[in-house]
Amino acid sequence: MSKEIGITAKRAENFSDWYVQVVIKAGLADYAATKGFIVLRPYGYAIWERIQKFIDHNLKKSGHQNAYFPVLIPESLLSKEAEHFAGFVPEVFWVTQAGNNPIGERLATRPTSETIAYASFGKWIRSWRDLPLLLNFWNSVLRAEIKATRPFIRTSEFLWQEGHTVHATEEEADAEVMMIAQLYRRLMEDILAIPVEIGYKSDKEKFVGALYTISLEAMMPDGKALQMGTSHNLGQNFSKPFEIRFLGKDGQEHYAWQASWGISWRLIGATVMIHGDDEVFTSLTAQKMRVYVDSREQYTPGWKFNEWEMKGVPIRIEIGPRDIEKGQLTVVRRDTAEKSFIKIDNTAPEIKKLLVQIQKNLSEKAKGLLASKTKTANSYGELKNYVEADAGFVKAPWCGKKECEEQVKEETGADIRLIPLEGEKPAPRCMVCGENAIHMVYFARAY
Amino acid sequence: MSKEIGITAKRAENFSDWYVQVVIKAGLADYAATKGFIVLRPYGYAIWERIQKFIDHNLKKSGHQNAYFPVLIPESLLSKEAEHFAGFVPEVFWVTQAGNNPIGERLATRPTSETIAYASFGKWIRSWRDLPLLLNFWNSVLRAEIKATRPFIRTSEFLWQEGHTVHATEEEADAEVMMIAQLYRRLMEDILAIPVEIGYKSDKEKFVGALYTISLEAMMPDGKALQMGTSHNLGQNFSKPFEIRFLGKDGQEHYAWQASWGISWRLIGATVMIHGDDEVFTSLTAQKMRVYVDSREQYTPGWKFNEWEMKGVPIRIEIGPRDIEKGQLTVVRRDTAEKSFIKIDNTAPEIKKLLVQIQKNLSEKAKGLLASKTKTANSYGELKNYVEADAGFVKAPWCGKKECEEQVKEETGADIRLIPLEGEKPAPRCMVCGENAIHMVYFARAY
Asked: How crowded is the C-beta side of A120, counted as CA atoms within 13 Å?
C-alpha cells in the first residue's frame, strides 16, 4: 500500500490524527465544502443504516411511530422555555433572509425539536385517550461549532434520532426514560460491542429544561469519556409553557409529563475509536452477512487486500486455482490476521461462527479497556493524579454540591460524567469539601 | 360521526378544501408552528416509508449508495453555476448569524444539493476507475414559498430523495436518466396506482442547469397537471465549473457527464387527490398486509368504523358473537362499501385477493380519469376552449419556439407539461404561429 492511501498515524502515539485518518481514508466521511460540516459517505452511511434499523425496529415494536417536523423554528417559539433557550442560543444558526428580502422574525435552524414539536402536541392532545403519544424523528440538527471539526464527534450538523413522548403520569415518563436507556445500552453493547456506564447526569450537566437526564458513557482509548446517548425526563417543564394539557379520567385538566431522548452518528465515531485498530466495524452492525465480490480486473490481488483491510472488512475470502482444486476457501480474519481454510460445502456456517468469534473478541477487548481505565480515588489528590495521568473514569465520593463539582472541573478538567443508577455506597466524606458524601460518582475528561 | 371530525367539503364542489380536509383529518399531516411548513404525522410518514422502501431497495439493486451532505451551502458555492443560482436564489433561505455573531459568508439552506455535492465529487474522482459514481440522498430541501401553503404540494420544506450520478460518457448519463424515469413510473403506476405521462420538458421548463429534463406528469381530478418526478441529464454543465475530471482509459483528462433526479412527498398529496374519495391509500403502498386490531374499549364500534373509514383503511374486518358461531368474518371494502363474509380458515388468501381487486379497481378508475381528461386540439381556439373548460391535458402541435409557448401560457395559463418520449406525428402546423410543427406536446394548467 502506498503511503498516500495508507494510515500513517499510530494510534498509541497520536490518537487524534489516527482517528481522523481512519475515518477519512476508510471512506466513512469527508470534510464538506461548508466549514465545520462533514459528508457522510456510503461506507459510513451503511453503518448508520444498521444503527437505524435496530433502533427503528425496536421503537416500532414498543409502539413508537415516526414523524417529521420543520428544520426552521421561529425565535418566539424557541424562547418559550427560558432555560432551554439560554442553553442553546449561543450555538444557533439564524435564518434572517428569504430570497432578497429580510424576514419578519428570525428562524433558528433546529438545534433540537422540543419547542417546534410541543407546539403541535399542545394542539393534538385533548384527553387521556390521546396518551401516551410516542413519536420519533429521524433528522439532522445544527449547532454552530467554533472549535476544530472532528468527524462524527464535533460537527456543526449531525444526523440523529430524537424521541418525544407524552404521558399521563410521572411514573410512566420515568419508565419510558429507563426503557429507552436500556434499548440504547443493547445497541451499544450487543451490536456495537462498546461497553457503557449508565447513570444520572448532575444538575449542572443535565439537558437544559429537563427534570433529570440519564446518560450512557463510554471510555475511549485515550482516556476521555464519550457521551453515547441520553434520555431525559422533562417533567412538566415544557408542558406548562406549551400548554400540553389533557382531560383525565377523573374529569380534571392535567399538565402532561414528557420525555425526550436521542442518539447520533457520533456512535460511528465511537466505534472507530474503540475498534478502529482492528477495523472490523462492518461486522458489528450486520444482522445478515453481507458479501462483496471484488471482481475488478484493473487491480492486483495485493492492492485489493490492502484496500479492504483499510476499510475494515472483518473476513477476507480468497479463492485461487489451488483452492478450487482442493474444494476449499482461504479465510483471513481482520482482527487477528489468522489464516485458515474451510471446506466450500461448509462456507455459511463456518463464516457465521467466525463472525461470532470476532464480535466476542472485540467485545472482550473493549471490556478490558474499560476496566483498565476505571479507578477509584480515595482522596482529591489521588483523583487529580489519576486524571492528570490519563486514567479514564475516576470514581470518587461527592457531597452533591455544585461548588465541589465546579472546583474539580476547574482544577483538573474532569466533569462528573454520571451518578450510577445503582451506585455503590460512597466513602463517608466528599473528597473535595470533606462533608457527607451522598454518591460515588464517575469523573472524567470528555469529548 | 360529528361534523367536527368528519370531512365536510365535497370533492366535486370544492376540490381544494376537500383535499386539505382529507390530509388534515385523516392525520396525514398538519400545519406546523412555522409559517409555510407542515408536520408529517405518523400516518403520512408510514406512506412515505413505503415509498422510501420501494425506491431505496431498487436503487441499491442497481448499484446506487446512500450518502448525506450538509443542509447549509456557502453562497459562493451555490453561485458557481450561474443559471442554476439565478433559478434558485429568489426562494433561498439565508443563514446570516450564528449565536450572537454575524457570519462571514451567507449560508443557503439547501434548495437542492448539486453544488455542495459536486464540490466533493471534484475531490473524489480522479480516474475512469472511480466511475460511475451512483449516489442518493434522503433529506429535506427548503424553498421559501410566498403563496398559500398546500400540504405536500406547496410547502417551504419538503422531504425528498435526490440522486446524483457521474458517468464517463454522455450515453451512460442518458441511460441513467431513462432508467430512473422508468423506476419512478413503476412506483407511480404499479404501487401508487396513478397513471402518468412521461416526456421531455421544453427548454423553458427544464431544470436550471440541465441539458434536458424528463418529467412524469399526472392529471388531477380538478383538471390540473401535477409534476410527480423529474430526471435530468446535466451534461457537462456542472462538471466544468466544479472541475469533475477524470483520466480516461485513453490517458487523457475528460470532464464527466452527470445526472440528477428526485421525487418528493408530493406523491402522498397526489395519492390523496387521485384516490382520496375512496381513501384506500394505505393498501397501495403495502408490500405486506398490515393488520391493526382496534381493541379500544373506550370507543363504540360505530365510532371506530367512522374513524377508520376516514383514515382510508381499505378493508374493515368485524368479528361479532354471531360471526364466531358461524366460523366467519364480516369484511367491508372501503372503495365499494360492499359487505361480504369469509370463512375464518381462509382469511389470509381471501383478504389478499380482495386487496388485489381493490388495487386494480383504483388503477382502472385512475386510468379512466386520465383518459377523460386528455383531449387533442386542432386549433389554438380549440386549445383555449378546452383549457378554459377545465379539460386537463390538451395535446396540440407546436413549432418548438419559446415565443409560442409563452403566448399560450400568458393567454390561457397552460404550460407545456411535456414533449412525449415517443410522440405521435404532429399535425403539420404549429397551432399558434402556423409554422412547421415539430412536436405534438401536452399543454395543461398545473399545480
From this structure: 27
Strand order in the sheet with B72-74: A72-74, A101-109, A93-98, B93-98, B101-109, B72-74
Of B30, B98, B144, the CB nearest to A93: B98
| Contact between A116 and A70 (Cβ < 8 Å) | yes
* Minimum-distance CB partner of B65 among A33, A42, A120: A42
Q: How many residues does chain B have?
A: 447
Q: Tell me how far apart the alpha carbons of residues A117 and B39 are, in angstroms, rounded to a whole number.
A: 9
The maximal CA–CA distance of chain A, rounded, in angstroms, is 80
- The per-residue pLDDT of chain A, averaged, comes to 92
Yes or no, beta carbons of A67 and B90 under 8 Å apart: no
A28 inside 8 A of chain B by CB: no
Contact: A142, B89; criterion CB under 8 Å: no
> Are the beta carbons of A96 and B91 separated by less than 8 Å?
no
Helix and strand counts by DSSP (H, E) for chain B: 13, 21
Contacts of B39 in chain A (CB under 8 A): 67-70, 120
Please indicate if any CB of chain A lies within 8 Å of the CB of B127. no
Which one, of B304, B71, B396, B340, lies nearest residue A72 by Cα?
B71
Nearest CA in chain B to A75: B34
Question: How do residues B327-338 score in pLDDT, each as one tens digit?
Answer: 999 999 988 889
Chain A residues 253-292 within an 8 A CB cutoff of chain B: none
Taking Cα atoms as reference points, which of A216, A214, A286 lies closest to residue A54?
A: A286
* The pLDDT of residue A287: 47
Q: Are A280 and A308 in contact (CB under 8 A)?
A: no
- In degrees, rounded to 5, the angle at the alpha carbon of residue A350 between the alpha carbons of residues A189 and A331 is 95
Residue B19 · residue B272 · CB < 8 Å: yes
Chain A contacts in chain B segment 142-161 (CB below 8 A): 142, 144, 156-157, 159
A127 three-state secondary structure: strand
Is residue B49 within 8 Å of A11, Cβ to Cβ? Answer: no
Q: Give residue A376's pLDDT band: very low, low, confident or very high (50, 70, 90).
A: very high
**How much of chain B is helix, strand and coil, in % rounded to 5?**
35, 30, 35
Find the helix packing angle between A170-186 and A42-61, rounded to 10°: 140
Task: Say which amino acid occupies A45.
Answer: Y
Three-state secondary structure call for residue B149: coil
d(Cα A56, Cα A51) in Å, to the nearest integer?
Answer: 8
The DSSP code sequence of A413-427 is: --EEEEEETTPPPPP
CA dist A244 → A24, A130, A259, B365, B430 (Å)? 45, 11, 13, 43, 62
Cβ of A70 and B129 within 8 Å? no
B70 touches chain A (CB under 8 A): yes
**Residues in chain B closer than 8 A to A48 (CB atoms):** 68
Compute the nearest-CA separation of A61 from chain B (Å): 13
CB pairs under 8 A between A and B: 168
At residue A285, the pLDDT reads 46
In angstroms, the CA A417 to CA B277 distance is: 56
For the full predicted model, state whether its pTM sits above 0.80: yes
Residue B292's alpha-carbon distances to A241, B206, B295, B315, B316, in angstroms, are 35, 44, 9, 11, 10
Quick check: A33 and B74 CB within 8 A? yes
Residue A2 scores a pLDDT above 50: no
Considering CB atoms only, which of B70, B96, B135 is closest to A34? B70
Which of B76, B173, B69 lies closest to B114 in space, CA to CA? B69
Chain A closest CA to B50's CA: distance in Å? 13
- In this complex, is the C-beta atom of B378 within 8 Å of any C-beta atom belonging to chain A? no
Quick one: DSSP state of residue B425?
P
Partnered with residue A101 across adjacent β-strands are A98
